[in-house]
Amino acid sequence: MELLNILLMAPAGGDAKGGSGFSSLIFLVVIFVVFYFFFIRPQVKRTKEQKKYRENLQKGQKIITIGGIHGRIVELQETTVTIEVEGGVRLRLEKSAVAADAQDQLGSEAK
């Protein structure tokens, strides 16, 4: 909304060449489009994929947390997950702390 106000307050008259107001507007639109396709859209897509992944977690699945802890899911609740790590220690985490599937990480290291 602020961008629209700035554009509307821009001087209507151009300089000696004429049309500079219109070219400035086109330049701003092009910059916005570039930001959208290179920054905003990929981030939204990545967020949707992470949400879908966390909703489809299953008992027995090996995961990696955002803190780098590797473990196996032993219990799932609405918003939390209990994992078992080395030595039989169990940790309860928020689902949002699950970063990736450990099998995917092992597969990418082998390549």
In short:
The protein has two domains: 2-53, no CATH class; 57-110, SH3 type barrels (Roll), CATH 2.30.30.60. 48% of the residues lie in helices and 23% in strands.
Folded structure, characterized:
This protein is an alpha+beta fold and 111 residues long. It has two domains: 52 residues, no CATH class; 54 residues, SH3 type barrels (Roll). Helix content is 48%, strand content 23%. It has a five-stranded antiparallel beta sheet.
Distance between the termini: 48 Å
Helix content range: 40-55%
Q: Poorly predicted ranges (pLDDT <50, ≥5 residues)? A: none
Return Rg in Å.
Answer: 24 Å
Q: What profile does the largest beta sheet have?
A: 5 strands, antiparallel
Question: Which fold name fills CATH's third level, the topology of the largest domain?
Answer: SH3 type barrels
Q: What's the number of structural domains?
A: 2
Overall 3D shape: rod-shaped
Chart the SSEs and their pairings:
Layout: H1 2-9, H2 20-55, E1 62-65, E2 70-76, E3 80-84, E4 90-94, E5 98-101, H3 102-110
